[in-house]
């Protein structure tokens, strides 16, 4: 089994891009376009300009890791409204919990699609339960043995950030 460092960057970029594109186009009718990777942005630059909803799901197996999806609150609300078939007033009445649940499900579907592609490439793994964070500031500091990749996607007028942390598993 190759170590994470032996797997080309293009494999992870392609796998994450396909997962985000598939979920956002299928479930939300939105196109997700990978933004050029800014080599000047340090991998631990996770301070957010506005409040965000952050969904995370882990995967365990040949490769262990976590994927965090960062959505600004208005984008998270827009996604939840579409996914749940609610208008703005209905979503406001349902509250933050409905938004959290929808973003948890979007994250679960995205990471599940990512995991399935890893399995198809010979790296079987299983998923953990989704978690949701709401924050304006967050600092993710991976263990020194973890590999980190950050990808940004333009979805309409919004940016989705996918933060991938991985290490060689079983």
Q: How are the elements arranged and paired?
A:
Layout: H1 9-28, E1 33-34, E2 52-61, E3 63-72, H2 73-84, H3 88-94, H4 96-120, E4 125-127, E5 131-135, E6 147-155, E7 158-168
Antiparallel strand pairs: 1-6, 2-3, 2-4, 2-5, 3-7, 6-7
Helix pairs in contact: 1-4, 2-4
Our estimate of the beta-strand percent is: 25-35%
CATH architecture: 3-Layer(aba) Sandwich
Order of helices and strands: HEEEHHHEEEE
Tally of domains:
1
User: What would CATH call the class?
Assistant: Alpha Beta
Number of helices: 4
Describe the structure.
- It contains four helices and seven strands, in the order αβββαααββββ.
- Strands 1, 2, 3, 4, 5, 6 and 7 form a seven-stranded antiparallel sheet that branches.
- It has helices at residues 9-28, 73-84, 88-94, 96-120, and strands at residues 33-34, 52-61, 63-72, 125-127, 131-135, 147-155, 158-168.
- The termini are close together.
- With 170 residues, it is α+β, with helices and mostly antiparallel strands.
- The model has no long low-confidence stretch (mean pLDDT 88).
